[in-house]
Amino acid sequence: MSDHGTPNRRLAAAAALVLFGPVFAALAGATADATTQRKQNLTQMIAESQSILAGRIERVTDGIDERGLPYTAITIAVSGAAKGQVHDGSRYRFRQFGLQQPHKMPNGKEVLALSPEGFPEWSVGEQVVAFLFEPATRTGFQTTVGLAQGKLRVRDGQVSNEFNNEGLFDGVQIEAGLLNASERTMLASKGPVDAATLLGLISRAVRENWIVTGAMR
User: Fold this and answer.
1) CA 4 – CA 10 distance, rounded (Å)
2) pTM score
3) Which residue of 51, 123, 146, 202 has the lowest C-beta tally within 10 Å?
4) According to the model, what pLDDT value does residue 20 have?
């Protein structure tokens, strides 16, 4: 169960914003705020992603980098990629702002800069679909489009995000002739959806430039 809403995480998020406010503002997707999330639909998430990939979370670590910035490092064993310079069978590694757990510094002080409330959490062994912003220029940190909205977990062939896909298909319009029956059903559904159907639609949308041409809005 997520602890995004616990007092400890909210307190840690507040501390992180005080200590690392300028860094947080420079994160990929700086318009996404840790306390007020902008709802994103599938069209927006595809358009704003640098990479869209599916795979298994292979490793999660955290620490303080050489600049004194707190991070969580995630490694994904990629099983499929719909967008970006990512290849099946590769390892995709990125760093997200914030710690998993408080850390003690050599001087004995404790750093409470956990990933702010609303950021996705990652666990080894999870099967996920991740919509990833490009890395931030100043920090190299990277996170998902829409924060927790852009990390979808795959269970028994079904995929959903932390919000049970709420709003994922709201307002999405795709030229009818481009969709098969399974895709039309998916776009009209609520809750978890078939992972293969979703990834297939995303791959075609990217490959055939549906958003650029206006076929997907």
Assistant:
1) 7
2) 0.82
3) 123
4) 47
The three-state (H, E, C) secondary structure of the chain, written as one string: CCCCCCHHHHHHHHHHHHHHHHHHHCCCCCCCCCCCCCCCCHHHHHHHCCEEEEEEEEEEEEEECCCCCEEEEEEEEEEEEEECCCCCCCEEEEEEECECCCEECCCCCEECCECCCCCCCCCCCCEEEEEECCCCCCCCCCCECCHHHHEEEEECCEEECCCCCCCCCCCCCECHHHCCHHHHHHHCCCCCEEHHHHHHHHHHHHHCCHHHHCCEC
Q: Decide: 159 and 118 in contact? Cβ < 8 Å.
A: no
Distance from C-alpha of 124 to C-alpha of 68, rounded to nearest angstrom? 25
As a whole number, mean pLDDT of residues 74-96 equals 95
Which sequence spans correspond to the domains of the chain? 7-213
